[in-house]
Amino acid sequence: MRRLRRTKIVATLGPASSERAVIARLFEAGVDVFRINMSHTPHDRMRDLIGMIRDIEKEYGRPIGILVDLQGPKLRLGTFTGGSAMVKKGDTFTLDSDPTPGDAARVYLPHPEILQAAGPNQTLLLDDGKVRLTTIETSRQKLVTRVEVGGKLSDRKGVSLPETILPLSALVEKDRSDLEAALNAGIDWLALSFIQRPEDIAEAKKITRGRAAIMAKIEKPQAVTRLDDIMDVTDALMVARGDLGVELPLEKVPGIQKQITRAARRAGKPVVVATQMLESMISSPVPTRAEVSDVATAIFEGADAVMLSAESAAGQYPVEAVMTMNRIAEEVEGDPTYRTILAAQRAEPEPTGADAIAAATRQIAETLDLSAIICWTSSGSTGLRVARERPEPPIVAISPNVASARKLSLVWGVHCVVAEDAHDQDDMVERACRIAFTDGFAKAGRRVIIVAGVPLGTPGATNMLRIAFVGADQAAGED
């Protein structure tokens, strides 16, 4: 199951992809990480899906990543008399603490934290931005607003405040329950929704205690503003363009996507680009030209992964969507411009021994035209550091820790292999060469470069590199 591309594919599971046979077909088509959206998935169903993924993993002998996406705090209006009301531009509209059904003049806002935090002349977006309000009077009991963009409002539509930092945890009670259930089921990545500040991630890390890696979804302007602080504490980032495009002008989203992608690459943190990448394939067997260009842009930028949401979860063509994304990635990565862009955006290595070794590994491998870079990695950090360099030769990460291998399945260019840890350096070289041969990365007589931490099995101690020949005896030993 060697992929012929470096960019990874994340696919969301849902009604269209909840059967084992379909999940297996998605994996065969190119999925590297499966996403489970807890906004729509009860715990029993989540456990069933994880069980099917692990069965497929065992059948194919390849580590598969599982990403559980927490719902996050959902801010919603109350109800209306008759179920809806029309608000008109220029009218005054009040959101208050009175739970009685609303009308064209007012509605209940069951979130006292918004009433406390909102100030005058701030924007409120209702129903995914279809209705826009500006506050003209604020108190702890009500917000009096002016309707800037009118429209029809109905019961429990969403509320967002792009200019206001709300005193809310990114983990509501449902998220905490979902988080514990996901950790107990053995997932690999945990995505946090609607984060505003680094403290939101720190709170989740206290609960996970290293049992899963944390991915920060950047979908609020407050998170964009504090991107560097968030980058310091998170394990990965997702450019969640759906809500980002609600809370910010749409024309700003492409630039922010590039900003986030490049910042993540500099930091050596995986970055996923998500939302509406092949949206038309929910109901069409082929995407639009603009969608193909959108996916290609994310890949040209060096994103670690591109993600399918409704296309694979609820669409009519989930397998075809994955195959299309796979073909786009292979084509882009074969374009000569791709390597030029990656090289131009490569950051200087951090002033640590491990980063210097990773940078030297890439340079040696490219200068000598080596067949592969083989990383022995216990925690996954060696694989991450080498991937940060975006080397031209393929990366093979060998780990005795299946959890580390599953996490690395999200990382650009890393082909993961689970194997018993090496006994000594000779054993390390011998088995690295053999795995490179059997998995199709090096032919007999070709050279590879091996990078590891010594003493073996010491997390984060990347300090050794070695060039080795793939001998005929190693090739013959597998026949």
Tally of individual helices: 18
User: How many individual β-strands?
Assistant: 21
Largest sheet: 8 strands, parallel, barrel
CATH superfamily label of the largest domain: Phosphoenolpyruvate-binding domains
Q: Structural class given helices, strands, pairing?
A: alpha/beta
How many domain regions? 3
Give the secondary structure arrangement, pairings included.
Elements: E1 8-13, H1 20-29, E2 33-37, H2 43-60, E3 65-69, E4 84-87, E5 92-96, E6 106-108, H3 112-117, E7 123-126, E8 131-138, E9 142-149, E10 151-154, E11 159-160, H4 173-184, E12 189-192, H5 198-208, E13 213-218, H6 221-225, H7 227-233, E14 236-240, H8 241-247, H9 253-267, E15 271-274, H10 289-300, E16 305-308, H11 310-313, H12 318-333, H13 336-344, H14 353-367, E17 373-376, H15 381-388, E18 395-399, H16 402-408, E19 414-418, H17 425-438, E20 447-453, E21 462-469, H18 472-476
Parallel strand pairs: 1-2, 1-16, 2-3, 3-12, 5-6, 12-13, 13-14, 14-15, 15-16, 17-18, 17-20, 18-19
Antiparallel strand pairs: 4-10, 5-9, 7-8, 7-11, 8-9, 20-21
Helix pairs in contact: 1-2, 1-12, 5-7, 7-9, 10-12
